[in-house]
Fold:
Amino acid sequence: MQPTYEDIQVYKTCTEAGMTDDFARCMIGQARNESGNWQSQFYLDDNNPFGMNYSPNNPFAVPSISHFNNEGARPVPYAHYNTLGDAIGAQILFFQNGTVSHYDINQMQDPAGYCNQLWEKGYFTGNLGTLRDYESIVDSYYTRFNQPDFWAGVVAELSKPTPVGGG
Structure:
């Protein structure tokens, strides 16, 4: 399986933000899992692969006009992002500055540590079986995209300056 445009954007945004290759590949797995392999309506309509609610504290998002979370006392709009890169940037900030507690990025360098942090911090709920199922999905993408030469080429290509005039 070759990485998609979306996978490359996640990887690029993560590495540009100083995250490791391992963290980036875990986030690809999380994003693919939560967006149904980039096919969910949240992603297609709002560039929101994680189904995140809108928060006025999120500098990257505006309220979605088409999707609302109806789980609470009143509907809350989901976040709408102009680009996938904005959604990934917001997710990284959320991990670094979470309102409940900070995530330990150092523990998020493999699928088990990444998913354990999500579970321990209440990102998703469920029993240990739910955690292991989630981890298994993230691990499948993490392993598939363990292609250091490919990612090194992507990073090198993305690092090249764009010629004046775009071409």
Q: What stands out?
A: The first helix runs from residue 5 to 16. Strands lie at 61-69, 76-81. The mean pLDDT is 86.
